[in-house]
Fold these 2 entries.
Entry 1:
Amino acid sequence: MQSAPIGVLDSGMGGLSVLHALKRAMPHERFIYFGDNANAPYGPRPPEEIRALTSRTAQKLIDRGVKALVIACNTANSAAGELLRARLPIPVVGVEPDLADAHDRANGKRVLVFATQATLALPLYRDMRRRLCPEAISIPAPELVMMVERGVLSGEEPEAFFREKLRPWAAEEIGAIVLGCTHFIFLRPLLSSIVPGVPVFDGVEPVIDDLRETLLRAGALSQTGEGGAELLTSSDEPDIRARMRALLAAEL
Ligand code: DGL
């Protein structure tokens, strides 16, 4: 059990940011990543479709013998997390917008939440917002998903997008920013250069803690061994694996 790999899934490239952090935090683990790039983005799809696509990918990873599953996609976790946790024979953890930490750090100022349309509309986020961070301002940002899918992590296009979305607030009014989509984590260095000093929360640390505790409890945490990551995708674009490897190696 300890030596079995851990499955990590996303609609496409975004979850590679989570995989990057997982590899660093758990160097002895082997990971199998599946990006459903052929069907990305998930954000504009109805919840039933996101559930079906996520379940299909989860099954592919189960068939590869994974000992646990990380849903490295806020959208997939919001739509399908509960279902997969109830149905799958292995532990399932998932990333969600970190409203609790953002609220604690915001000192009563605005909390801006960038996420997909689906994440912002689904009950997981709506309930968390009501309970933990009613001051949150929800900003759908599907454009950023496609930029990251194309490998655009800096420059005029994402910078203009952020400047436009942040225009209504002076920097002093913003207490925290939540990146509620794993694709956006690749744009964090750019965002922080636009609003330096504003704390940015991406929900990755909580999911790593959750995974570590879950594996420890099950006696399934790998403490020795080489570790590594295998990258799989549903897309047959010729350069896709090279783009995945480049993102996984990006400075975060
Ligand atoms: N990486 C995604 C997330 O965390 C999904 C983006 C998309 O496919 O629309 O929400």
Entry 2:
Amino acid sequence: MNPPLPSSIDAADGTGRSGLRRSTAVLVTGAGGEMGHAVLRELAERRINAVAIDIRELDPDTRALCRDAFIGDICDPGLLDRLLASYEIDEIHHLAALLSTRGEFAPETAHRVNVGGTLNLLHLAAEQARTHGRTVRFLFPSSIAVYGVPDLATKRRAGRVREDQFLEPRTMYGVNKLEGEHLGRYYERHYRLLAKDRTPMPVDFRSIRFPGILSAETVPSGGTSDYGPEMIHAAASGRAYACFVRPDTRIPFTTMPEAIRALLELAAAPKQSLSRIVYNIGGFSPSAEEFRLLAERAFPGAEVSFAPDAGRQSIVDSWPEDVDDSAARKDWGWAPTHTLESAFEEYLAPSVRSRYA
Ligand code: SER
């Protein structure tokens, strides 16, 4: 990556690409993904200047939420240079990733995107901090995929898992997310450890290990917690669904609005109250069978069967039944508002129903 331009070459109109002076922006990678759209909407509501990166052209609704969009690969230094030619970045929401199922079909590509991309963005953040003399905040969605519980008996016994337990991920995605957390800690606390001119804390790294996420607006692709949202969307749209895990399978889930609220609440928390760089957040932990019962209650006539896929089952079996999110509650006041029932009744069922009406 070329060194960024100085922060203000005062001239022209100061409005971004056309002028020489760069405007300050929050960068959102993976902007066209499930979380990206929701984060951009919240930033737009708060009138925050957001600039998007995605591998694909954004749909017009998402594009309208941001000041500018750069289409390309986060591993391409040329793309990041083009971005820095126009914008000074003071906060990054790095949401781009290949999820756990897709990653197993192309592990090396997953590593290149998930770790290589994260490294590029952390470097960009640190260099922005060095140039402008202020810390760049970096929000990183991690995942329950960082956990690797060895077997079902241990999973049942373990119950709510703390942030420091069972960190032996089974998937490339989990390995990559755990590495992303370690890289974040390094860039925040130790970056260029031996340099005489080091910038103290160039990056303010904050991460949440998300459980499976249920969105009423979008269906995820390439993940292994996807059986939850897929079942609901299939039931609402009148399609039969064969669930790829056993009925007794249990992992934690939350809803997309809760996930976005958590990310933005963590972003806004005073740094001195944060005792960790990565936090679990929980929600509810239904079995796949409980999901089916709720889906059938909300959408009478829904046809859900079970056809477990051994490989994907082994991934979900290695994720904990639930997580201990007491650190998030204590440090930044995290308080989930949905129970499984209220998530279905107040958010998922009405919104998914109107989507397919
Ligand atoms: N939803 C992710 C996946 O299934 C886990 O964080 O890969």
